[in-house]
Amino acid sequence: MSDSARPPRPRALFIAALLLLTLVLAGVLALQAHWTFLDHRATAERVLRDNARVAAARFASRLSSELWYVAFMPPLDALWRAKAGAPGGPLPSPAQLGRGLEAPTAEFMKLVRYTFRYDLRTKRLETAGRPPAAAARRWLIDTLPIHSRTVYDPKEHLAAIVRTVAGMPRAIVYTVVKDKGEPRTVVGFEGDPKGFGPVYTMGQEKIPLLPRPLTGGLPDDSLGSAIVTDADGIEMYRSPVQYQPRFAGHDTVEAMMGGMRVQVALRPDMASKLIIGGMPRDQRPRILFLLALTAGLVAAALLQLRREYELSRLRADFVSGVSHELRTPLAQIRMFSETLMLGRVRSDEERERSLEIIDQEARRLTHLVENLLHFSRSERRLTRLSPTPAPLAPLLTEAAEAFTPLAAARGVTLCTELTDGVVAPVDADALRQMLLNLLDNAVKYGPPGQTVTLGVTVSDGRALVSVDDQGPGIPAAERERIWDRFWRLERDRGSAVAGTGIGLSVVRELVALHGGRAWAEDAPVSGPEGRTGSRFVIELPLVPQAHAATGASPLRADAGASA
Ligand code: ADP
User: Fold this and answer.
1) How far is the CA of 505 from the centre of ligand 1 (A)?
2) Is the beta carbon of 249 within 6 A of some atom in ligand 1?
3) pTM beyond cutoff 0.85
4) What is the pLDDT of residues 400-458, one digit of tens each?
5) From ligand 1's centre to the CA of 518, what distance in Å?
6) Which residue, by CA, sits nearest to atom 11 of ligand 1?
7) Ligand 1 atom 7: the closest Cα is on which residue?
8) DSSP structure string for 423-477
9) CA 438 to ligand 1 centroid distance, Å
10) Which of 122, 191, 348, 552 could form a disulfide with 112 if both were Cys (CB 3.0 to 4.6 A apart)?
11) Beta-carbon count within 10 A of 153 CB
12) 384-550 in CATH: which number?
């Protein structure tokens, strides 16, 4: 193959590299989109969690202030006013204390178990109301001195302990009475934390879970849900509506007010209100689909490129094959005609022989040119045929006779096995062309001295014309491809056996125009060296086919594709 005929491989590689690069870029873009999405989602979730934390803090501070005003301060105030802090003075019972208090406090007072007075110096504990059990009493005596020292806020005059002690939830609320500037007496009461019930939902109008401008004034139970536990983790309150704790914040009521823990979970679909533009939409499936589409398109383009490359390589082989096939007979013709012209022949036989060779080579050229012409006509879809019913045996004999000298030149014996009386509609020239192509291949690819058999039989209402050789045969996997234009077996590409790769494609196309089929198979009889050889079969209908050529109209030359 000459350099100029070599297909432009580097350019194809360059285009393939560009396509792959495009795919890689698309992949990088998809990855970027994936990362951006994850980033946006993380930011959005952070915003929601921050909002949940704000809501929890607001809930805790609201709870703290409502407890102060409703449950803790009024009873302590009443105790104060009854001078319960003075040692030896009266210690009113919860029932007495509750008198005259306003509605929500009075309700809470119903669940107050006892009032107490504890002398920090004498460590004496007095109670009025339902007396606490011994364990609770001990605990109170142990806890009050420490708690009043560490947690009690002298400025607020109040502290609360909300815990479960001796299996009972308790809310101890007290104040410390001083004597000569020194803490002297702890006065307070123990209530049931169940009494906080109404307090959890109080004050929503004043302090909603999130600022109104953010939520558009949604009520708390549409915004989020709350759970309150005591300092020991035992649940005290759970809002009737509960949302998934996907976006939840935690906070603690100040220690002085009982140290309860608060969890607020925002309603997940609040995201669209709290985040500008809402939660980022997951575009990844769409992007993946587009990426897959791009990959598919690139794969298709690469496949097309490979086909183009293969075709250009086959074309290049074809050009070199044609030149090669033309050169050999032309050289022979020139050599023998020069011999004749210069009168260098020594005998009449030699002259005869030279003329025979010139004739053979000229025929070979004619055949080759016929093939090329046919091929070019079929490329332009201009092939016309005129099939007319004719007995096949004489046509085959004629072709065999015409081919005998060429066969003999390679020491090939040409036999015929003909069934007489087979009549089929054929275009004689086209049939001759097909047979010459098959016979030429049989002789070209088979060994010198082999026997090539040309036969015709009838089977299932169809004529079967066959050409058997004793050559290397066609590998089963290649038996379809050899009929493609320019296709040559690997072993013959660049070998000494010149070829163009169009002979069989011309055969298949002409057969298809007759409404028949052509294929290759193993030859039934093996050759001298035990090689199987190949058999090429042309199957022709015995009656004219509806789509066969009539000569009246040009037939599509690509009809062969359907054969
Ligand atoms: P070419 O000009 O190369 O002979 P063809 O289209 O006639 O082109 O054949 C295509 C290829 O099929 C050949 O190149 C050869 O590899 C293979 N082939 C055709 N006929 C035979 C045969 N009788 N024996 C072995 N191989 C064959």
Assistant:
1) 10
2) no
3) no
4) 998 998 898 889 999 999 999 999 999 999 999 999 999 999 999 999 999 999 999 99
5) 14
6) 488
7) 503
8) EEEE-HHHHHHHHHHHHHHHHHHSPTT-EEEEEEEEETTEEEEEEE--SS---GG
9) 9
10) 191
11) 13
12) 3.30.565.10
